[in-house]
Specification:
Blueprint (H helix, E strand, L loop, with lengths): L10 E7 L2 E6 L14 E9 L12 E3 L3
Antiparallel strand pairs: 1-2, 1-3, 3-4
């Protein structure tokens, strides 16, 4: 999740798939198994842990499963 941290050192990451909330995860989201249904456009943003700051959404990354 490549976001502008603006000095924040501890983020909670929210991941989105095709514009809808997908999961909370770490900066790097890893799939245990991958299925065709996992294909889509993914993005994320961060919320400061114990604070009130939020990042902008990241650019979307397209996952193609074939």
């Amino acid at each position: 999740c490549d976001i502008d941290g603006e000095g924040v050192t501890s983020w909670q990451y929210s991941w989105y798939k095709d514009g809808s909330f997908y999961t909370y995860s770490e900066r790097e989201h890893t799939f245990g198994s991958i299925y065709e249904s996992d294909a889509g456009k993914y993005s994320c943003y961060g919320v400061e842990r114990g604070g009130s700051r939020r990042s902008q959404h990241s650019d979307e990354v397209t996952l193609i499963v074939s």
